[in-house]
Each structure stands twice: as structure tokens, then as C-alpha cells.
Amino acid sequence: MTTLLQLKAFTSVVDQGGFTAAGRRLGLSQPAVSRAVATLEKELGLPLFVRRRDGLSLTEAGSVALTHAREAVRHLTLMRTEVAGLAGDISGTLSLASLPTATAALVAPQLQAFVERHPAVTIRLLEGSEQEIRDWLDQGAAEAGVVRLPIRGLDVAVLGEQEMVAVVPAGSRLASKETITYPDLASEPFVRGTGGCADVFMPVARQAGVHFDLAFDAREVTAALEIVRAGLGVSILPSVGLPDLPGVAVRPLVPKTVRRLGVAVSASASAPARAFLEQVAASSARRHSDSHRAQ
């Protein structure tokens, strides 16, 4: 009979890209993970992986089984956490997917408060692009995720905002300006981030009739900054969480461009994910109330 361990071993091998990494994630030895997956394959009657020198890939049976395995693990985890919740305790795992630029400044403080309130919950943090986070939420690899607002079809709480800034080489003519406009940036080779920020500023550029000279695509903020520091181009990046790097000048962007972020969970999210969403929503309400009083 299929066990929870077998299902967790199978899904972890897929998520971690191998048996050894899955073992580290689960706190098991590599042979133990291999045995669990082999037993599951025997019970199902078909191999789940194609094993090659360059790594693993799912068979057709594996792709079908993965969807059901994720759902089974999610439902069993949900059962445990909801039963524990009847006793007033929240336990289990919070699988949270975050944008790298949001983790330190926006997500980490929320996680710190959450752990203090719910010490029995284990945190599993993933980082990826906006599209990867949406895919992880859809596939069940993450139960909560940082997303750009507005968004439909998910329960959401406002996390915060990231103002976009112009990033230019420190020795360039643009670095001498107090503010930098979209037309200013259009006159230089442009480094476009592929993590989701471009979806925020590209519509603004089009509305202003500006066409960037796209010279580079960079997935990571650090890669974009290094290209700028080398004098090869300019970029637009979120100010929150942006490291201070010698050779790079950061200036306010005109017109002001903001990315609004939230934490989203699915309707069937577990108790830890729901509790985290409620905490973020409460934090947002307090910020709004404080801002209103300050005015």
C-alpha cells in the first residue's frame, strides 16, 4: 500500500532534481529515498523516472503520478494540520515561494513574526521568477507565493510595494542627473530583468512612446548589476532589497513606477498557509491605519 513517505520521496526527487538532494530535504539517506521510489514504482507497475547520465526525467507514467502524488501529500498534510488546529496548535509545513528581490526586505520580517507565533510550523522557502511562482502555486509545489497585484483566482493579502529605480554606471553621464527619465534610458543599451520587473515598467515605457535598446536579458538582479557596473548598459530594478554596489549609481525614475506585491494562497491551502496569509493581511491593515492617522 502506498505510503506518505513514498509520495514525499517521489515529489522531492522531482523538486530537488535528484535522490541525494531529495534525501537532504527530507532528512533521509539517498538509499532510503531510492528504496521508497522503487517501492512506489513496483506498486504502480511502471517506472516513474528515466535515469540518464545527465540526470533524471519523468516518464509518461511519472508525469501522471506526480499530479496525484502532490494532491495526496497536500490533502494528508491538510488533514494533520487541521486536526492539530482543533487543539489550538498550528503545525506542519509552510511552503512559501518568493521573489528574490522581495525576500529580505518584505518576506523575512513576516516569516520572523510567523515563526514566533507558530513555532511548530516548518518553513520551506523557494525563490523564483513571477511565472515560476505562479506555476508552483498551480502545481502544488508551493502553498503560498509572492505575486504582483492585481491578480485573480487566488486569495491575496497586500505585502508591500517596490518602487522601480534607474540603475546606471557610476561614471556615465546619466549618473550626474538627480532623476532619470524613460527617454534618458532609451538612449543607452538596456539590461532587461526577466524575473517579472519588466512587466511593470515596459507598459509605462510604451505609454510614453519609449523603445529601449535591449542589449541584455538578466534573470538575477546581481547579474543585471554586474552588467551595468561593467559599463555595458543601464537598467530598471526594484529599489527594495537592491544591494549597494561600487561602480553603480541608483537614481529615482520619472515617472514614478511602482510594483505592488501580495501573498497569495489557493482556496485549498493548508492551515499554516492560511495563518500566514492572515498575518500578512493584519500587517497590511495596521500599516494602512497608521498611514491614515499620520495624515
How would you summarize this macromolecular structure in one to three sentences?
This protein is of the alpha/beta class. It has helices spanning 4-16, 19-26, 30-44, 60-86, 100-117, 130-139, 182-186, 198-207, 221-229, 271-294, and strands at residues 49-52, 55-58, 92-98, 121-127, 144-148, 155-169, 180-181, 189-193, 213-218, 234-238, 248-254, 258-265.
Task: Provide an overview of this structure.
The longest helix is centred in the first third of the chain and has 27 residues, at about 60-85. The chain has helices spanning about 5-15, 20-25, 30-45, 60-85, 100-115, 130-140, 180-185, 200-205, 220-230, 270-295; strands spanning about 50, 55-60, 90-100, 120-125, 145-150, 155-170, 180, 190-195, 215-220, 235-240, 250-255, 260-265. Strands 3, 4, 5, 6, 7, 8, 9, 10, 11 and 12 form a ten-stranded mixed beta sheet that branches. It contains ten helices and twelve strands. The protein is of the alpha/beta class. Helix 1 (about 5-15) packs across helix 3, helix 1 crosses helix 4 (about 60-85) and helix 2 packs across helix 3.
